[in-house]
Amino acid sequence: MSIDRRNFFKVLGVTGAGLAFGKQAQAEPAGEEETEFKAILYDSTRCVGCQSCEFSCAEVHNLPEPEDFPEVGVLRKTNENRRTVVNAYDTSKGEVYVKRQCMHCNQPACGAACLTQAMLKTKEGPVIWRENKCMGCRYCMISCPFDIPKFEYNSPNPKITKCNMCFERQQEGQLPACVENCPAEALVFGTRRELMAEARRRIVENPDAYYPHIYGENEAGGTSFLYLSPVPFEEIGFRTNIQNASYPALTKGFLYSVPAVFVLVPSVLLGIHKATKSNLDKTNNYD
After folding, report:
1. CATH number for the 33-104+164-249 domain, one of 3.40.50.720, 3.30.1490.190, 3.40.50.1400, 3.30.70.20?
2. Could you tell me the pTM of the whole model?
3. Domain residues of the chain, as ranges?
4. For position 248, what pLDDT does the model report?
5. SS3 labels along 5-55
């Protein structure tokens, strides 16, 4: 298969320029205006395990309705057909329900690992996947500390799937489907700053009801999905050994210390991918 040399070197040149000026760009001060991330606060003390969040998510995203239910001892996981799940745990304070989905990290490892920016942290807060930019490397799956992105292995046109915090609905001024349809008001939508304040208020005003920690405040550098729990988070299946620094921060020093050839390898691969794709598109036009 021939490769369009012009497109290849165009992509490689742009990528190389980005690497050359990376340090300078990072050194520039951030803009004065900062958009506050939108976020969701989940209070497990209010969740009744009704699965309304699961059914509404399935409806909005044209996915199969869940056929199982939360059961102590059974770990239900997100997959290519469901973006959120509710599990039940037997804890020191009785049965507790917990909703799980993408955490929408402030500095997502999946976004940093994605060579084409198909996985993107939007300025509004949600982490979304963009099909037209994906090259199918699945680095996002490997890099996620919460094991969230899933791949449609059995599809003839496979995609990466995960919760996108109903980004399309947010753009239309609507609430995420799970928040809008939660009858117990276990889910609250707002800016991350507002929700952090609300979570702290609940802990202070009712200390006997809550474990004194907001999961997602610092984990993995902070997330846009925040959790309150009546018990320590390890009792409800959370990883408590997640580092507080963002995972992309681990690579900053490395990228400036290794030989340039190793940094350029992904750029070369990306150039080949783009040029090949362009050539295929031209060929397909003649079919």
Report:
1. 3.30.70.20
2. 0.77
3. 33-104+164-249
4. 85
5. HHHHHHHHHHHHHHHHCHHHHHHCCCCCCCCCCEEEEEECCCCCCCCHHHH
